[in-house]
Recover the amino acids of this structure.
């Protein structure tokens, strides 16, 4: 289904990037299901959020997307306070209105979500038919999400970042203090080891490898999570946090930065960078027996980058 990649150099938004172009099928089938990825988005429709939502709707219809993966910082600046918070309407329900986006949204928490009441997002999942967050970290089995032989491991990365615990008299410090980061890392290690899926994808908010100007690499994630990805043969880590679109390869793992759901910041290539751009947009991912097709699209629906991540 996937064509052979062709290297090319292009300029997007005034920035030169190196991209590996690889056209792949633009429709999902039972054998090649698709899903969308978006992060760092909840701004009451501002800063291209509504434009990205419209482009996502068209892509979801075109690709017959099975679900949307949200990689955190779902509501700015300070999360939501309850399941009745107005932002559920102004930043989510009233923005992602396309019929093709009325599919399950599998959601990770970000640091801005921890500035509010993270539990409210789990509570909303109990009343929403599309907002899916059974716990702060969990496994999405391929059989349950229509992705044969693929397991997705959603982690809650904010409690792993030490600096949040030292912010004096802050809501984020109080919220992360209640979470056992060591227990979560041990869970991920066990869950990855127990998985018999041939394709394993880990999803979290914080970066591991990144050329973003906002954050760059997250030291705690590099120290604790990166070795688990490599040890257990994880194909890709999908994240937000830096407001851009990135594809980096490091020691056999693909790092897909998808934090451009609204505001963006400058980004630059680092070791292993295949593509990076500071442009609002999202990712469309198509799974096939031969590999994982990744496409970044911008807020106008233009295709910025396509590649295939070969199956291990």
């Amino acid at each position: 289904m996937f064509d052979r990649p062709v290297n090319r150099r292009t300029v997007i938004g005034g920035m030169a990037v190196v991209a590996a172009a690889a056209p792949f099928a633009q429709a999902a089938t039972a054998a090649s299901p698709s899903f969308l990825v978006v992060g760092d988005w909840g701004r009451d429709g501002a800063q291209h959020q509504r434009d990205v939502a419209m482009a996502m709707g068209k892509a979801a219809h075109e690709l017959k997307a099975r679900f949307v993966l949200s990689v955190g910082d779902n509501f700015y600046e300070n999360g939501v306070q309850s399941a009745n918070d107005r932002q559920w309407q102004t930043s989510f329900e009233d923005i992602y209105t396309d019929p093709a986006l009325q599919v399950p949204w599998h959601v990770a928490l970000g640091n801005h979500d921890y500035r509010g009441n993270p539990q409210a997002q789990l509570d909303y999942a109990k009343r929403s038919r599309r907002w899916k967050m059974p716990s702060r970290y969990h496994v999405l089995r391929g059989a349950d999400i229509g992705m044969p032989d693929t397991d997705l491991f959603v982690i809650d990365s904010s409690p792993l970042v030490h600096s949040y615990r030292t912010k004096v008299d802050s809501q984020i410090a109080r919220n992360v203090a209640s979470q056992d980061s060591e227990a979560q890392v041990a869970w991920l290690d066990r869950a990855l080891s127990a998985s018999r899926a041939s394709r394993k994808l880990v999803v979290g908010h914080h970066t591991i490898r990144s050329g973003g100007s906002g954050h760059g690499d997250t030291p705690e994630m590099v120290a604790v999570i990166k070795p688990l990805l490599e040890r257990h043969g994880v194909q890709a880590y999908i994240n937000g946090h830096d407001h851009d679109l990135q594809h980096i390869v490091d020691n056999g793992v693909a790092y897909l930065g998808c934090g451009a759901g609204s505001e963006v910041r400058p980004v630059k290539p680092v070791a292993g960078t295949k593509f990076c751009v500071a442009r609002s947009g999202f990712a469309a991912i198509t799974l096939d027996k031969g590999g994982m097709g990744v496409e970044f699209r911008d807020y106008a629906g233009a295709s910025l980058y396509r590649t295939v991540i070969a199956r291990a």
